[in-house]
Structure formats: C-alpha cells, structure tokens
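> Could you send the Prostaglandin-H2 D-isomerase prediction when you get a chance?

Sure thing. Input:
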Amino acid sequence: MDKFEQRVRAVGLSEDVTYRFPTYGGWHAALGDPCALWPHAPATPGTKMQGWGCALQCPGGAGAGGCQVPDKMTQPRLCLLQGFVTLQMSFTSSMLTGRWYSIGLASNSNWFKEKRHLMKMCTTIISSTAEGNLEVTSTYPKGDQCVTRNSLYSKTEQPGRFSYTSPRWGSKHNIHVVETNYDEYALVATQISKGTGSSTMVLLYSRTKELSPERLEMFTQFSREQGLADDEILILPRTDKCMADAA
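Output:
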C-alpha cells in the first residue's frame, strides 16, 4: 500500500470512492483548488493533472463512469500533491505562529540556481490575523546587511492552504502546509506561477537551529517526490547573523 492509499484509508474512505489521475501533463495546470475538477466534468483520463490523486465521496463511486463533481462540493474530500502527500490534517493556524528557522530550501527556479551559493539559514516569525490569514516576516543576511521581508498569506477554503501574490514581481504563490507537529518542524510546499512560467519550492522550518537527520531526510525525499533534483535541494548553512534582528 503506497502513501496515497494509506492516507485515504486513514480518513475512512474506501476504494470505490478513490480515483487516481493519470501521470502526464504539468501538475501546475491544476493551480487553484488542488481538487479543481471542472464543474460537472467527469474524472476521466482526459483530466491532465500529473501526480495528483483525489478521494471523492460521491454517488456511484469513481469507477469507469467517472465521478460527477457538483459546483459546490459538500462531500468529504482528500486531495494530494504530486508525490501523493496530503495537506496537514486538522490544521490549526494559531499553532503555527511564533519563531521558526529555515533549515532546508529546495526549488527549481532560476533565482535559486543563481543565489544558492549565497543562501544561509534565516528566521521567520509567523502571526495569525483575526481573519485566519498568516503574517509572515522573514529576516535573512544579504551581504553585510540584514533584510526583512513581510508577506500576508491569505487563507483559502482548505485548512493548511494559503495564497499570496508578490506585489513586486506579480507572481502567484499557492502555499501548502504539508506536514507539521507545530513544536518541532513544518514542511511547506509552494507552487509559484507568473507570466514567464512556474516553479516549485519546498521549505523545511524548525523551532530550533538544528533538526534530526530523520527530518532532514524527510525533507529531501519529499522534495525529490515533487520532481526536484538533488542539486535543487539545499540544507541551509547555519549562521548566527541577523538572528537577533528577528525579534
């Protein structure tokens, strides 16, 4: 039984309401709702969503006739990213708040390739707004200076999934909290899209400046499952620079 099947069974869904999408086409074509089957469109092999699986509780199951998805899906659902990894179950945004250290970063963007040799650990402070959005403040070393960047992650209808649009670059960020235990680590996957194309980014956060080898391996393996090569995966060098600035 693979990870997809394990997660589906864990939430009580049976085989007759589980459907696997074929693996071809770009998975970023499904940006928006990760279970964004078009209204009333059957889940057939023509649905181009690479590496995605959806478990839908709907009349008639998800057999050869396809599963009709209503305009407003009210049935329980479980959607998985490429690599069949779910969003954090029972996600609670308030428990994610506080100080985090960036331990790992993986990306297939040109920006990452150009700046990889300069990157070091940085500090991120997360706070929750009354509306359930996340205010994210990251402080990192850049040359001889400490740079602070503020972002507002807007919540979506799916707990653990947020959206953000960069005011500077206009890029759209589809952010998923994949896994966290809140008091030790958090694994976050982001799909970034703009006019010139799209990229994938994976971040590993820690409450402390060190994580166990098992957590680091989890991050590396998950990044590979998202299609990232080993030279696109980086355990960030530890530094004390700019850490005190992130109060």
